Amino acid sequence: MPFFDIYKHFIFPSKRTKILLCFLIIFMLFLGYIIVQLTGGTKFAYLHILYIPVILAGLVFSIQGGIGAGVAAGILMSPFMPTQYISEQSQPFLSWAMRMIIFVLVGAISGVGASIFRAYIKELELKQITDPLTGLPNLHGLTKIFSEIVQMTHKTLIVVAVELNQIQKISAALGEEGTDQLTKQVADSLRQCVGKNGFLGRLRAHGFAILIPEEEHVLEILKNFESLSENTYLVNTIPLFVEMRFGISRYPNDDNDLNHLIRKAQLAIKTNQNQTERISHFDKSIGDFSEHNLLILNQFKTAIDNKSLVLEYQPKAYLQTGKVMGFEALVRWSDPVLGLVNPMDFVPLIEETLLITPLTRWVLETALSQMDQWNRKGLLVPISVNFSIRNLQDPSIFETVVHLLKNYKIPPHFLEVEVTETCVASNMSILVATLKNLREIGIRLAIDDFGTGQASQQYLFELPVNAIKIDKLFVQSISYNSTATAIVKNAIALAHDLNLDVIAEGIETQNEYDLLKEWKCDGGQGYLIGRSMKAEDATAWLKERVKPHKPKGKA
């Protein structure tokens, strides 16, 4: 904003600017004096040019400058200057005195106004760089401090990000007022740890950052951080323990921009696999991984519109008869920048964002459209699609499924929804209603990756599940590992006792197939049965194995 920059030179001038403006004011005073003389005397100077330097002096140098310039202007318009040069008529003393008073008043008013305005602007700027709750610098304030430190010294500067564990749950329990009290107490304890050796700021609702200009103070402050593990905060007479984690990045080694340094320090916390370590240091390999993830997310935003996604179909078969059980729909992505992207690289990332909603809708619509084509040819078989926790939390997902089933006239029992065991176990109370709604209209439900999560038996009783899919980790170990064998056999027996189907994932050898068949496993999936195929290949595969029948669900 150019105007803002110009005005700041006058309202908050630097020392150099003040000197230049001082000479300008003196020059303008004498220039005004000369102009008044050239125009014929004070009688003709109704709008004195001398008011300009007086007002300018008041704006720049406050009331003292305005009064001083007013006095100077009054002296220049002294009784020695005649009213008219032609008649050499002298200026009355009273007239001169009045002019002097007016000049001084104009200068004083300009100075007072400028001082009030300057104080108001400073207050606004202070609000812009200060967190109102804690009084700490906010991100803008920290950025200003960071810039000043960098200009003063070229030494290494340490940036520490502070994250509070489980703070969302604590906030939900305390409410807004209680959370504010806790935040103030946490800020006070951090302020004591940092002392005069660094600069503490608040980033957002529950995050803090610290700038440490001197390397030698880092160990002392980190030692103080360790003592915070013993702190208990009292909010509304409730003692609370808040665990803090700290991430560290360095200027200029890791980056030159404060925002990037803070993000990298936060990334160090999030990627720390050792949960017993409360202090994590940023590593370049973490940053490279993160940049790649950001690129994936950025490229994926246009993947559906650019038609760079393809749905492939991996067959499932009944192990006892070898007949076709159905397909699992698997999304594949070939990006013009990234090339062919491994599903394990992008699917988990997408599941953590709102991009999972349009992706799941695309998978559903593409799969049901393909089922419609197979149905017209008398080749309709069930297809399973994967749902994430975000999908099941989406209030519109049920209506979306119902609409698409009606649109393509596919009987609901030909669609199977797969959810992972870990997803269900950690969010059961949230998901039960959605899963029951899907089941009530006839959609089949399967628990994917069975055996890798927690409380497996509990949710089998509580959820309207039709099938479980045993994770390939166990399936591919049954030929040589007795523990895996016991887990798989027990899972099959448990499922059958509950009248559930069992599908084994990742079958790659004939021995695995034979053992699972012997143990009465219902279905299987894996490279031995068939790799994932594009739609046209899956159609050809079906034609070889399925006898055409009358289209299902058609009017």
Quick summary:
Helix content is 52%, strand content 16%. With 555 residues, the protein is α/β, with parallel strands linked by helices. The longest helix has 36 residues, at 93-128.
- What profile does the largest beta sheet have? 8 strands, mixed, barrel
Number of strands: 16
Low-confidence stretches: 1-7, 82-87
**DSSP helix count?**
20
Any idea of the CATH class of the largest domain? Alpha Beta
C-alpha termini separation: 66 Å
Structural class by helix and strand composition? alpha/beta
The percentage helix is 40-55%
What is the count of distinct domains? 3
Write structural notes for this entry.
The chain is an alpha/beta fold and 555 residues long. The protein has three domains: 2-128, no CATH class; 139-282, Alpha-Beta Plaits (2-Layer Sandwich), CATH 3.30.70.270; 293-545, Alpha-Beta Barrel (TIM Barrel), CATH 3.20.20. The protein has helices at 2-11, 15-38, 51-76, 93-128, 139-152, 167-194, 218-227, 258-270, 284-300, 343-351, 356-376, 389-393, 397-408, 421-426, 428-440, 456-462, 472-475, 482-497, 510-518, 535-545, and strands spanning 157-164, 199-202, 207-212, 233-235, 238-240, 244-251, 279-281, 309-318, 324-335, 339-341, 383-386, 415-420, 444-450, 467-470, 501-504, 523-525. The chain has an eight-stranded mixed beta barrel, surrounded by four helices. Strands 2-3-1-6-7 form a five-stranded mixed β-sheet, sandwiched between helices. A hairpin with a 4-residue loop joins strand 2 and strand 3 (207-212). Helix 9 packs across helix 10. It starts with a helix and ends in a 10-residue tail after the last helix.
